[in-house]
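Record pair follows.
FIRST:
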Amino acid sequence: MFKSLLSLVVVLVIVTSCGKKKENSSTTSETATVTPTLEFLWETDSLLTTCESVLYDKNTQTIYVANINDGPWVKDNNGFISTINTKGEITQLKWVEGLSAPKGMGLYDGKLYVNDIDDIVEIDIDKGIISNRYTIEDNPQLNDLTVDLNGIVYSSGSNSNKIHKLENGVITVAATNPEGKRLNGLLWQEEGIYYADFAKAVFGLVSHKDQTFKAYIEDLNDADGIIRLDNGDFIVSGWKGALFYVDAKTWTKTKLLDTTEQSIHAADIDYIAATQTLLIPTFFHNRVMAYKLKF
């Protein structure tokens, strides 16, 4: 009888112990952060000279590429916009010319907006021609560009450390960062404009309410391009060649890729959500590279 009771107790202890382990395992998996990996897909030919920015148009499945083609702040009139397809094939090398150092781009209502040193350039997509230029005085060194749902264009001034706004053909200042060093990446969202400061290594948010700059990450070196994923998290590029995954719940970063030693830069990136494809303009490497984002 004693042996039977002892056996029953042992069985109950084992069952109870197993049940607790299973419960703890489930809780851990629910709170764990899943970091994606990158799988190389393709790269273009090396004709995209000093490519600084890429932008995907989901309506036409066209990828626009801004090619500086020389010094990044030199008015030499030899910069151009290329088009490539989602296989990495160059469809039109010099789709639009007459630019000097084209950088950040945005789309709205049949127009492609491009930063060009001190001009926001408007391109008629159907005609493939420059339809307007909006000049900003005092050498702002325009870098990245983002467009809101109403077609208002926001442009970062790396020299002015201001976010310049183009609305109904009129240029104004949307926000100024007195503590900024080299304002770069911008991404408009409902809660504000996410920004990257290249020299200050900062990723943060500019409030729509009071236009204040709030830093979320302060050690993201050479911060450049910003994209947001469907889960609300971000990928931010570091111009020298690093790519960082940013968790929007904890505001922590994880390095996904670093091609700094190969001198392959990572400038103003974009993302094709339908195929989870990350597009990377490699600047002096003169190519666009594509990676599959895998969770």
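SECOND:
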Amino acid sequence: MNNRPNLWAFGAFIAGLLVPVLSCAALMIAAGFALGQMGSGVSGLPSSGVTVGAGPGVALISVEGTITSGSATPFTTGVAASDDILDEIKKAKDDREAKAILLKVNSPGGGAVASDEIYHALKGAGKPIVVVMGDLAASGGYYISMAGDWIIANPNTLTGSIGVISAFPNAQRMLDKVGVEIVTIKSGPAKDTGSPFREMTDAEQARWQSLIDEVYSGFVQVVVDGRHMTEGDVRKLADGSVYTGKQALELGLVDALGYEEDAIAKAAELGGITGKPRIIKYHRQPTLFDVLNSAASSRSLLPTPKEVSDWLGWPTISFVYR
């Protein structure tokens, strides 16, 4: 009697059990490694903060990457998630040992709403804020910098880009060439304004321009308040242009040129700290569920809703340097 078919069936059964078990084990190991890295201070994500020096502290809050709404995952890169930053600002506000805030900005900007939320949270922190700019502090990155009492840029920083942008891709001609027709059923003529499947009408473009102009006026006012400049002077500079740190100083868009150590010293001064200040970082310690969920989603072949939105160009208003 030939037992080979039974052996193959048994082997397939064992493999069917082992594959998901080994996959889960590998995921658990990766999650444990990620949690270990995040909790060790190597990645700068401890739950209670990293401190250097002695005495009263300066809270260090970093805005690194494109400013977006929501929270980042342990595997997210290149994004400054507003919910995470707002949480850090609240912790700094409530921390009696934090006498000042050092805001490190290295960002091209991003969402108008997310940028505005961060700006208002910083304004409400009730503590001196010193901003130190990195490679790029443009558009929304400059917007949030306006909450600072003192702004320091590197001579080679690119900053400014004061303005508002929306982009709407139009795929109608491409669809016509391949013979695809999109049928849209809508409740009103403006319901699909900005759709990638048809041209915008002149009236729709004018309407959307009025929205951009309104948000732009708000951006200008934030700069007027933050830099104590006249609206006319700000508007002369607010055509979307970027400036080097040196140019920004000459134009009155920043207060000084310098480096992080200069910003720390200024924050200590404004916070009334004598001697070397303690540097405090606040970050939420991710749970195992966060890591597993992030790992699973990062391996998905399907696009996220945000990615689909970005690809289709659904209407958004951004403070971003492009």
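COMMENT: Residues 234 and 242 are 13 Å apart (CA to CA).
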